[in-house]
Amino acid sequence: MSESARTLFATAIGDAEQTALLLDSSGAPLAGSYIDQNGRDISSEIGAALSGVSKEVSRSMRLLSLGAWTAVVIETEAATIALAPTTQDAVVLLASSSTVPLGLVRANDGLIVETTGIKGANGDQDPRKHTAALAAYLYAKATRAADAARLGTPAFMRLEAEQGHICVVGAGEVVLVTIVTPDANLGRVRLDMMNAARGDL
Predict the structure, then answer these.
(1) Is the pLDDT reported for residue 46 higher than 80?
(2) CB atoms within 10 A of CB 179
(3) Which helix (H) or strand (E) holds 53?
(4) Domain boundaries defined on the chain
(5) Which of 4, 152, 171, 179 could pair with 197 as two cysteines, CB 3.0-4.6 Å apart?
(6) Cβ neighbour number for residue 39 with a 10 Å cutoff
């Protein structure tokens, strides 16, 4: 990668505690960098963990009739990571310290705890199966990426699409999944799911 590509996002990020990467469909870094606490560029490790995400999410959004996906936001113990689609199944990744507001552009099984607004299932295909599979896939990908960056375990993940949001929380050996409409109170959804994962409901 050229130096100009490596520093592509420097002006946009400025002095904020943020880092940005542009990854192609296979996860290979095209621009930006991700420097860990030891000063090592781990862009390739992050990209490898997230390879194929855009294509798989796009496929699942079509099956669930939720429209095009616009972002995936992952909260971990140390940082918040956001992914957004670009052309040719590439993604832009922006990671920020958990203290900085973030703006952006099968080890686990799926357990549906609430579903709202799932429409357009084709034939006898059960949309819950696609939802559970997607949630488990994304949570596993997010966990590997967070491990590579030493950011801790993902606590809450949200996939944003044109016709709704898919929210995911890890709870031991399962992932809790909720699909809500675009106008849902995501703060309340997050709180309820976090409480459910802790067994407080």
Answers:
(1) yes
(2) 24
(3) helix 53-64
(4) 3-98+106-198
(5) 171
(6) 6
| Number of residues that make up the chain | 201
Q: Which residue matches tokens 């855009």?
A: 54
Say if CB 138 and CB 158 are below 8 A apart.
no
Mean pLDDT confidence for 76-81:
86
Task: Let me know: does 66 contact 73? Beta carbons within 8 Å.
Answer: no
Q: Output b/e per residue, 46-74; b: 16+ Cβ within 10 A.
A: bbbbbbebbebbeebbebbbbeebebbbb
For the chain, give the percent of residues with pLDDT over 90: 25
Residue 37's SS3 state is coil
Cα–Cα distance measured from residue 105 to residue 94, given in angstroms and rounded to the nearest whole number: 9
CATH number for the segment(s) 3-98+106-198:
3.30.450.30
SS3 197: helix
The secondary structure of 92-154 as a DSSP string is EEEEEETTS-------SEEEEEEE-------TT--HHHHHHHHHHHHHHHHHHHHHHTT----
1 contacts 29 by C-beta, under 8 angstroms: yes
Strands 91-97 and 18-23: antiparallel
